[in-house]
Amino acid sequence: xxxxxxxxxxxxxxxxxxxxxxxxxxxxxxxxxxxxxxxxxxxxxxxxxxxxxxxxxxxxxxxxxxxxxxxxxxxxxxxxxxxxxxxxxxxxxxxxxxxxxxxxxxxxxxxxxxxxxxxxxxxxxxxxxxxxxxxxxxxxxxxxxxxxxxxxxxxxxxxxxxxxxxxxxxxxxxxxxxxxxxxxxxxxxxxxxxxxxxx
Length: 199
What we know:
Elements: H1 2-22, E1 27-39, E2 52-64, E3 69-82, E4 90-104, E5 110-128, E6 142-161, E7 166-178, E8 187-198
């Protein structure tokens, strides 16, 4: 995963340098977003289906290659707290990052867009079936597991200009986490709110 992130960053830096020399970048934008959504699904040997509200944070950086096309990368962390049939403190965490491409329009102060991100991520699951998450005693009936996945994340959204360089943004997506066994990893919709600096 670290190699993938470094490769993405290196490619973007090289691309920026080449683009600046050839003068074909129309601009760039980037910012941070908070999100909330609903997550469900996942394969594990306990026949347990983690599902519920998930919350997280992340960010995005884009190069504007034309008046309507952008590319870049983004990455997010998302945490689902688990209580049903488990001890409080159990959770399912997702991290994913990847290369994005989107198509956008301008309608006054509004910049609607549609696109997708393709990349990879890591699912971290901690299930405590009995015990106490607030003490410092070893828990016998608990499990911790990490599994990588291939991520496909289509999205739609809209930036709202509130100044020359500042935009508010709202976005909706549906993360699909895929492994060799198929589309059985955690997935679901999310709504993002944040701010974008554009130049």
